[in-house]
Amino acid sequence: MAHPSQLGLQDAASPVMEELIHFHDHALMIVFLISTLVLYTIVAMVSIKLTNKYILDSQEIEIVWTILPAVILIMIALPSLRILYLMDEINDPHLTIKAMGHQWYWSYEYTDYEDLGFDSYMVPTQDLTPGQFRLLETDHRMVVPMESPVRVLVSAEDVLHSWAVPALGVKMDAVPGRLNQTAFITSRPGVFYGQCSEICGANHSFMPIVVEAVPLEHFENWSSLMIEDA
Questions:
Q1: pLDDT > 90? residue 60
Q2: What DSSP assignment string belongs to 65-105?
Q3: Domain boundary among 86, 102, 121
Q4: Claim to verify: residue 98 and residue 170 sit in the same structural domain
Q5: What is the pLDDT of residues 79-108, one digit of tens each?
Q6: Of 203, 193, 186, whose CA–CA distance to 3 is shortest?
């Protein structure tokens, strides 16, 4: 859950998000070192009167400043490609959920069950209870079992939407007539908030996403109650 004046990313709740945070820190350190070197070079050239004639025309230094950027790019590209393939990896999901975007709410269908599906609307500000977050709480949460691979099939019924939960490292476009898929594993129990991340009309800001990760036993009890109420 993000908080005011937060500088970093949200705490990771999935292995993929942990990898993304590590890669972010790795790339940020490289950028910091490059910026420091460039700043030092600029200050040195402006403040020092003397000129080193070997720097003005040197084959060796030209080789260095040609090869060094290539090495730095490889150091960034290889971890990036690794995470890219990890994010696309979907192996034997224990649960499949279909998320449909509408103007302006989400509907969820648990395809492994016969009659388990519901619409998820934002809770209006006047109906919030103490402890709930304005513009982020929904009347029905997407409940998933923790430490289990979950596949989410994402589509839309009207216009472009985007199903995004930052703490899980998940963001997938919802396109009418197209079925996209993504997957995640929650590494701990908790409630994780997201929002539609594609401008989809007047109430784009009012279609939040709430994923609640619970132990498997609690998930089975919840699914049984939802099917009985349907």
A1: no
A2: HHHHHHHHHHHHHHHHHHHHHHHH---S-SEEEEEEEETTE
A3: 86
A4: yes
A5: 999 999 998 888 889 999 999 999 999 999
A6: 193
